[in-house]
Amino acid sequence: MDGNEARWLAEIERRAAIYDAEGDTREGRLVAADYLGMAALMLALTVGFWMWAV
Amino acid sequence: MTTKSASETLERRSGPAAGSQGWSAAAERGDAPLLPSERLWGFKEFTFANSALAIATWAFLIGGAVGLFVGPKEGIAAIVIGNIFGVVLTALATTVMAGRYGVEQFVALRSQFGYNGSRLVYLLAVIVLTMGWLAVLAMMFGRSIDGLTALASGGEASPLGIKVAIASVGAILLTWFIVARGPTSIKVFNMIVAPALVLLMVAMLWLILSRHSFGDLMAMEALDPPFEDRHLNFIIAIEINMAAGFSWWPYIGNLARLTRNERTAFWPNILGIFGAAVLGEIVGLLAAVALGDSDPTIWMTQIAGVAVGVVALGFIAFANITSMANILYTSIVGLRQVGTEGLRRLGWGTILFGFCIIPLILVLAYPQMYDGFFIFLVWTSALNSALAGIGIADYFFLRRQRLDLRALHGPQEHGSYRFIGGFNPIGLVALAIGFLTYVWLFNPQTLDNVAAFRYLTASLPSCVIAGLVHYVLTRLFAHGRHWGDYPRG
After folding, report:
1. Each residue's pLDDT tens digit in chain A (54 positions)?
2. Is the CATH number 1.10.4160.10 carried by domain B42-477?
3. Residue B402 phi, psi dihedral angles, 5° rounding
4. Concatenated DSSP letters for B6-36?
């Protein structure tokens, strides 16, 4: 392993460790409400426009 | 990319003593995951960025193609229904992991297909799609210029003539020149063209509604319905729009990695990509049905008259260059991640030009492709819908939203994503089954379909079945560290 490769691996390790440390606590995670919102939006648009057009 | 090649890339760019600026630059180019502090786009910025990508001339083409199958009322419903499914499923498969980990899309794909499998997927999904779009948009540029000169001189436009061919070749070469100068020139083009294209769409909508009442428009019939069965035509129109939604698969993951978190990576796609594409397609649909021609380079002159038509066509011609520059740039950035070291040694301009050769051949040898472009678009969905299904199954259900950044960016030959020679046969079998499911349900070339297509479409079953096959086979057979290192229990 040459110096560049070692430095590169150390940098990847540093970046991965930052994400490890954050774990599930980071702000802005998608939660159940987001997934329910996506499902509701798809359902509402599909049913609404289908009934309007057909 | 192997560790060695990544470090070589870094050193070439930032010198042997790479500081934090050098690492950040390498991460920005996809060689390493972006840290949260390096990601600059908030909700508003990402909404603007993907609106600029979606508000493009292809929206007019897709809207016009929908008008061939169904009238405006069913067409608007098909545009909304198809796009919401396509955009939500594609965004789930690509943007959530990019927003969480800041990882480049095709590096993340190593966890699903292996480090060589991700290269194969890039070849199939990105190169074919982007080369096809480059050719179609270049021909649209050529036809706009031809229509413009015909309008100005009072002559006849000739869509398959030599003028169109020369202008199309010129469009590809101009795009190459712009992208070769780097992302700043693309950003300048975006800042001018995207807002102007919104204004043009609103103006076109106003001109159409000033000639026809909303009620009259909604009562109009399709231009060229292929079947007597209206329901089947409606489902095909939905399928075309799902294909349009799924066609964002190669592009939005790498934009979303620049956002600050998962929510910011996901929701702006609904406002930007979905909202903007729906607006553009509806304008294209109404214009095509009201004026009797699905080709925007023709209906635009009919709506706007000679003077405004010349300006509009000139603008549309150059708006195509913006679209072409965006997709060419994104594709070449991805190509650097999946390419070999020999490819990465080539200059930026040389790789770009090499990528443009097949589109150049297509515009010269196969200009008829423009009129059947929606067939090409729907073919791409046979692949993209299966890729979305596999992505959702792998990231959400098999990996439970956890990626191993060290394994994704470290040495690949003996790492977690070795599988068999760098290919994950499970992911590739799932992809093939998803593709075959699609083609069995609906053949985009001939429009042949089986009874189930009338109720299920083709993209949704392809997405679900590919995801299910990937999930079940992985649970049964993917054991051991070199087989993806999936969590157990």
Report:
1. 577 788 888 999 999 999 998 877 778 999 999 999 999 999 999 999 999 998
2. yes
3. -125, 125
4. HHHHHHHHH-SS--HHHHHHHHHTTSSPPPG
| CA-based nearest distance B57→chain A, Å | 25
- Of A7, A11, A46, Cβ closest to residue B81: A46
Using a CB-CB cut-off of 8 Å, the residues of chain A touching B99 are 28
B368 token code pair: 């008829």
Partners of A9 on chain B (C-beta within 8 Å) are: 3, 410
- Structural domain boundaries enclosing A18: 3-53
Q: How far apart are the first and last CA of chain B?
A: 31
Q: What distance in Å separates the CA atoms of residue B197 and residue B319, rounded to the nearest whole number?
A: 8
Show which of residues 31-50 on chain A sit within 8 Å of chain B, judged by CB atoms.
34, 38, 41-42, 45-46, 49-50
d(CA B317, CA B170): 11
Contacts (Cβ under 8 Å, ≥6 apart) of B263: A28, A29, A30, A34, B43, B99
The predicted complex's ipTM stands at: 0.95
- Among the partner residues A12, A34, A41, nearest to B406 by beta-carbon distance: A12
B1-16 pLDDT, tens digit each: 444 444 444 444 444 3
pLDDT per position as a tens digit, B226-240: 999 999 999 999 999
Domain count, chain A: 1
Q: Mutation test of the interface with chain A: which of B21, B396, B409, choosing the one with the most A Cβ atoms within 10 A?
A: B409
CA–CA distance from B478 to each of B135, B382, B488 (Å)? 40, 25, 11
